[in-house]
Design a protein that fits this description.
The chain has 197 residues and is mainly alpha-helical. It has a two-stranded antiparallel sheet with strand order 1-2. The radius of gyration is 32 Å and the shape is rod-shaped.
């Protein structure tokens, strides 16, 4: 009889999964419990682009640094170094971010196709992202924890109690009037609750 009760319980859960399992809260809780997970996800998914920003900044900074030294030799005002550094920093970061995320859709010019560096790697990033989510967010441990102790766990336990009570009544069948002669309805209810837990 137990496999039949479990099958019916699972069928009811499938019919009303939003009533017994809160996926959004589970995902939020996974990130709250492991704040480093967002950093891991960001670095893993964007490693190539972060490396590009670092390298691009170094090359552009070096090139502009040579120009700045030449300017310093000709005009040695104290404000030129910080001003030039600020402008170069803003310009290189802005240009690097534009190259990573734009254009969104591929643009073909002659034999060349241009698209944002990150967007070109969507398939690779999706694989990395999916693996991180599957391993760390939608893990069996997190799902079981969310089902058994999440916001909607009481609904699941109510559903379980209803199925166990129904199975107990079915099992007792015609003998129920005889059983109630020796045990109270309250005692039978407590027994159902113990079996369900």
């Amino acid at each position: 009889d137990s496999p039949d009760v479990v099958r019916k319980l699972v069928e009811d859960m499938k019919q009303n999964i939003d009533g017994v399992f809160d996926l959004a809260t589970m995902v939020e809780q996974a990130f709250v419990n492991e704040p480093s997970l967002l950093n891991h996800m960001f670095i893993s998914c964007g490693y190539c682009e972060l490396s590009f920003i670092r390298d691009f900044g170094a090359y552009m900074g070096g090139a502009f640094g040579v120009v700045q030294v030449c300017l310093w030799v000709v005009y040695a005002a104290g404000w030129t170094l910080p001003t030039f550094g600020f402008v170069v920093g803003i310009l290189t970061n802005w240009l690097a971010l534009k190259m990573i995320f734009e254009p969104v859709e591929p643009v073909k010019i002659g034999s060349f196709t241009f698209q944002g560096l990150f967007l070109q790697r969507q398939a690779d990033v999706s694989d990395i992202y999916a693996q991180i989510v599957a391993d760390n967010v939608l893990s069996a441990r997190n799902i079981i924890r969310a089902i058994l102790s999440g916001r909607l766990s009481e609904e699941l336990f109510n559903l379980l109690h209803r199925h166990v009570a129904g199975a107990t009544d079915t099992y007792l069948g015609a003998a129920k009037p005889l059983v109630t002669r020796f045990r109270s309805e309250d005692h039978i209810r407590r027994c159902k609750q113990v079996v369900a837990e």
